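Lab notebook: predicted structure, single chain.

Context: the supervisor wants predicted structures on file for every construct in the current expression panel, including those that have not yet been purified. This is the next one on the list. No modifications to the sequence; it matches the entry in the shared construct table.
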Amino acid sequence: MCLRVSITNSDRFPRPCQILSLVSSVHVLAEKKIMNPSHLPDFLPLSGGNNCGAAITEDDRLMIWGNFTNAQQRMEVPQQNLKPKRSDSVTNGTPAVQLPPSKPEQQLPRVLEYPGNRPRAIACGAEHILVLSSSGQLSAWGGNKHGQCGVGHSFRLANLQQIDGDWPAIERIACGQFHSAFVCSDGSLYTFGWGIWGQLGHGGRFNSNHLVPTKVNGLISKITQVACGRAHTVALTDNGRVLVCGSGSYGQMGVDEDVKKVFAFTPLPLGPLKVKFIATHYYHSICVTDENRIFEWGRNPQELKMRMFVMKKIRSAQLKNTEDPSGSPSPSTNGTTPRVNLNLPSEIPRDDLGLREIKHFLDGTIAHVACGLSHSALITTEGSLYTWGKGLDYQLGHGNKTERQEPHQVFEPNDVKWTHVTLGNNHTIGATDEGSVYAWGKNDFGQCGVITKKNGTSASEATKKFFFQARDGRRFMPNVDESQFVQKPGAIPDVRVRTLKNDAMADGVDKEEIVDRLKASDMTVVQAVSKHLCSSVEVMKLNGSSVIEEEEDTQKPKQYGGEDGPLCTTTALVHLIAGDVKRAIRMIEWLKTDSGTSDKSLLALSSLVWDVMANHEDVQSREALSAAFRHVPMSDSMRKGKQIAQLWPAVWNDERVQSTLSIDEKIAMLDSFTSASKPVIAPTIPSSSLEVSSKIRVYAQCAHAEPAVVGSPPECSTCLDEWTEKVRHTLGASL
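Prediction complete. Output recorded below exactly as produced.
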């Protein structure tokens, strides 16, 4: 975003935009350095959970909203009218009364602090989040009761925590309700979290939870995509076959039989059809074939229970209608009572079993699919959004509660091109190619990113209330009147997701071009860029000053914290051009331990540092020279050159410098030592030297004078004596 803003407003604010552009470009170059173009993670900037949503914004922040719990909007009825159980607490003969819980709080978008590199993909479960950076770093946050965060324990994570492990580059991530999965560049699949239904796919009858990512063995082919439901997992192979495992209680396995659990990944019976996309999030799943055919399997258990309820009502009504109004059955002609035939099946039909093809008439090729609790969505290559399924909570985006059996286009807002869609429990979140984010559907917890008022009938109107009684005797009443909705797609304020347009602009940043721009820029601009690249608050307070105290007593951290700017050679070059040599040297110190920095570029940068140190007296402080000799690499030719040899005596007695050099390097420095030839404007010649000889020799570097003797060495004898004593004192017996 910053790069786009600097380009757009460069005519109005040239100097600030120049600084912003250079700072943004350095950050982009640093990200490119750590990225592996051949294994770049899939771009997924938007995700929805049960009652929540999350996004990667255009300025690379993580924004979350809604409630990251498995809570449902319902109210518990007080127990006054119920017969108390023995286990109930009683005070003065009166059973304790549980007060109804408070109304759910609508939580607006807020920032989730992310300490890692630039985020590229995000996935939401019921209570947790997975975040994948451009460099392949995986992090987790939130509820972790079943180990779904993969950090080795089952305690909740208050902050984002990195998931460490020995696996190839991660390309795709997915979150179920309480389990997670990711796909690596070599086609391997790792799962972790809740596993009681076999949804982790490790075979046998292994149904325990996994607290760390574990590789799934025995797969028939390489995996390219993975999607996680509530208690099942769907995977797609590189040859277009769909694999499923986990709970099959509601048809999640896609077969015609009633299968309760499948512990190993099993092929979906699609015959010769090849699949290109898969999706699931709760109970039902979707796949799209190469021919643009849509298949669906599984069903929300609430739908099955409602169907059973309706059939019971119909059966009861038909039985009642077959009886005579007088209450006596109508006799037949032979005097016997006729048998009543209701034409009702003896069992509830299980249409949730097997595969169902979704008929459609789309205006283009399907590019993306998503699943919610009881609704589905897809996006075409033309950027059109289609939804179908249940619509009681306005989650289809058509402005009504009508159920759709096939995909219907969402027409509002007008003239937008959809790029991403994600579905929660009963809400939908979508993003456009301009980065705008829209949400609609149920909003009890603020999962649509806005505050809404109570939706339903007024208090004066009589309404029907349905009560559900649990096994323990408690009665619950769904808060139908308290439910809150966003009936049509509405923009989420202050949330704009990162788009591929932003990435395309960043791809055009070239290192050589940035270096040329730095060289051509005014010194005040370069100094401002150097200051803004640093993340340290103390450095920002210096207002551009390059005075930074050397850390002598504090222990050096094991991991770079970003206090000197993005970890790349361009950052060090910016500091060097700005005159902040110490900060450039510290950056080189970290770059030496960075595997992504080539030796060639590091040596070229080091050569430039030594050239600056040798030719600019204003940076030749003892602290800077000591840091340079300790941390800046030297080639053999540089070590034997006169420039470095002339600088070495100034820090020769520094033990920190000595500890970094081997005996051979010390001897090489001694062999190449030459006195620096710096002009002295007004040397002082003692009169005693004139009396001894008619010819004297004056040394420019120290202003010493001595009689000129044929065959004497060109170096000053006084300086040589001092130098020899320093060497002997420092090296001791090693010399």
